[in-house]
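Quick one, probably user error.
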């Protein structure tokens, strides 16, 4: 026999994550993957090798640099800034031609 709920604030019953549709990711022990490779953190300057930790500056060339080498003229940057600027201007300003001019 069940009793009716007591008057007043009712305690929230804990619910399992399976009832809510949330599925937990399997642990490496469950899947059989022992020693799964982790993503390597970029914690050293690509130019001088100094440890940068969380304060590393990411360049458009793909490297992480310390405060002394964060500018493109301070490290051997292979990113084409001029070409990227040309592409951005070309995308922002499409060529517009009127139909009347083509008919003449």
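Nope, works fine. Designed sequence:
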């Amino acid at each position: 026999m069940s009793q009716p709920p007591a008057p007043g604030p009712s305690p929230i019953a804990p619910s399992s994550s399976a009832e809510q549709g949330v599925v937990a990711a399997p642990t490496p022990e469950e899947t059989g993957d022992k020693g799964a490779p982790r993503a390597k953190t970029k914690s050293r300057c690509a130019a001088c090798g100094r440890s940068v930790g969380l304060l590393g500056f990411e360049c458009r060339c793909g490297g992480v640099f310390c405060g002394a080498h964060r500018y493109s003229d301070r490290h051997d940057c292979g990113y084409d800034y001029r070409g990227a600027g040309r592409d951005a201007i070309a995308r922002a300003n499409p060529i517009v031609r009127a139909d009347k001019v083509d008919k003449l």
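The chain has a mean pLDDT of 74.
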